[in-house]
Amino acid sequence: MADERVCSAIGCDKPQIARALCPKHYDAWRRHGDPLISKTRTRGSCSYPGCDRPHASKGYCGSHYSRLRRHGSVRPTRNEPGSALKYLNEIVLPYQGDDCLKWPFSKTGRYASVKIDGKNTYVMRIVCEQHYGKPPTPEHQVAHSCYKNPLCCTPGHLRWATIIENEADKLEHGTVRAKLSVTQVLQIRELESVLDVRSIAKRYNVSVCAVYNIHRRKTWNRI
Fold first, then answer.
1. For residues 100 and 157, is the Cβ–Cβ distance under 8 A?
2. Which of 109, 146, 114, 108 shows the shortest CA–CA distance to 127?
3. Which neighbouring-strand residues pair with 18?
4. What domains can be seen in the chain, in order of their start residue?
5. Packing angle, helices 182-190 and 208-215, rounded to 10
6. What does the pLDDT average to over 53-57?
7. pLDDT class of 1 with cuts at 50, 70, 90
8. Most CB within 10 Å of its CB: which of 58, 104, 206, 214?
């Protein structure tokens, strides 16, 4: 009697549950019509180009399948790690063209930036140092000749400039609107100890508040 309760599949001594078969062979019979057929699943590689991780679902690895499920596409929704630095070294630094080369990655404020050793660094400063050496003084900063494109990193459009030179460029290009020139602002500061605020305001045809803000560096604080 004990033998009759054993699975009838060859070589199997597990207890039978139905059709004289054990659970495993009964399931094989129900799925494939033959209890001795077992579907062996071979896991290939992810079908996404360049990915050799094991297949998980719908032809993709777990990471690409998750991206497909969340965004409807396996194409990256953000830049791959290291792509910005690679673009800087392979495209920006060797660039010799005259057209604006716009930075396509992240920015800090209005300007292009790249993360190096975990720290965000301005791309234009890296380019300036590469092509023109270190800044002449710690006060020098990078100035753009293409004032309308702050994300430009074309080497020929960049140069080292003092703060006053840079601010003067902004006024000349119209990126900063002001009734006063850089020279006049410096003069107003020098007159602080000589004339009262109202007299200075009248001389330069500005408001008393404007003079007060210049003296207290609430405005024009970069010069």
1. yes
2. 114
3. 21
4. 3-32 (no CATH), 42-75 (no CATH), 83-173 (3.90.75), 182-215 (no CATH)
5. 80
6. 82
7. very low
8. 214
Q: Which two tokens stand for residue 208?
A: 């008393």
Closest CA to 25 of 7, 13, 46: 7
Between CA 73 and CA 193 the distance in angstroms is: 67
Cα–Cα distance between 79 and 153 in angstroms, integer?
19
Note the residue count of the chain: 223
CA distance 28 to 37: 6
147 and 169 in contact (C-beta within 8 Å)? Answer: yes
| Helices marked H in 5-82 | 23-32, 62-71
Global pTM exceeds 0.85: no
Judge contact between 21 and 8, C-beta under 8 A. yes
